[in-house]
Amino acid sequence: MDYSWDWSVVIRFLPVLLEGALLTLELTCIAVGMGILIGTFAGIGRVSKNKLIFSVSSIYVNFIRGTPMLVQLYLVYFGLPAYFGPIPPKMAAIITLSVNSGAYVAEIVRAGIQSIDRGQLEAARSLGMTYSQAMRYVLIPQTFKRIIPPLGNEFIAMLKDSSIVSVIALEELVRKGSMIAGRTFRSFEIWTAVALLFLFMTFPITQLVNFAERRLKQND
Amino acid sequence: MIKVENLEKRFGHLEVLKGITNEVREGEVVCVIGPSGSGKSTFLRCLNLLEIPDGGRIYFAGKEITDLKKTDLNQIRAEMGMVFQRFNLFPHKNVLENICLAPLKVRKCSREEAEARAYDLLQKVGLKDKALAYPDNLSGGQQQRVAIARALAMQPKVMLFDEPTSALDPEMIKEVLDVMKDLGKEGMTMVVVTHEMGFAREVADRVLFMDDGLIVEENTPEKIFNAPQNERTKAFLSKIL
Fold it and tell me: Would the pTM of this model clear 0.90, i.e. be above it?
């Protein structure tokens, strides 16, 4: 094997890779942000005593968690246009990632609510609060703190999994890498650079999650 | 004030309450004693419908509350204060906010009114200087006194106490019992599930002895403690006195 390394391609194409990384970051932020919004409602639905609300949120969560994200993406990008007309790839990506993230966030929220001592709900109800008042003023605020670490993990997972949208030609980090590697035949160098860029993005969040977990332990 | 007829409660196949009939009159302090698993706490938790009974009726202030179609549970519960064994203060809110939350959100009081009453109640339970402290920074006895103030802030007609001193260190029991004694003297109607026989003897107007889901014996504290009639009451008291 006489493969000689040439890292200069990485330097040369770094701006392009960074452009991809920026899109990855953008998609992830939007997806997790929307995911938190969807997941909060679905998570509350998952602990609801109302059968309809519980069923709808359970079906949503189980469907998303039980099917590959790639299939979900194809369903949105190739399937939905049958009814709604063509969807731009970026829109399809945002819809898929957000809806997917929402299901995982829902489970985080559900676990967070269920981790709160039952006595809290009883105390609130014994004071005459309705179920939704007890949720809003007593349970949900206590849940926020506890779900920060798992939400950080969800962000990291989404950052990596968002690379799946490269299959619908969205030029995020992985797609950019594959384009450059194909053009320069410098696969090893380029994919190393792509991996490192992912690591640069995830590592600070990992540290933040660890920090949050330590803080939480002290408070409990 | 509260009338109970033939109250029954099951958890799955386990019959916890097997037909309880009793009445708590206005201004009365009733202590409920008995061995663990006798159904005392379940009985108490049925009174404000934290547990929904499977049979029998409960009347509160002359109205049947076990007819769930016609009863506004939240309104009933707002009229009955409850104090728990594990305090159950809201850890994300300070003492003042703990006390004011329900008056603000349920009674729709103004903030000034709620806070003024909260400070009065804190004065009463001896914790005025802790208004801005968080529950985690209070001792168990202090937390329980705040919990009493929080329940009183709703100006309830009845106070229900579910083993309020069982989770406390021995040196903190007295401060909580003293607050409860004062409440009783002021004429508050109280139902107290307790293992504190000294308290029951001193403060109760009437003591109910429960065993195996039934009220086995009831009487004035002197008669129950000095001359119990039922064999099971005798056996229980001989073990703990």
Answer: no
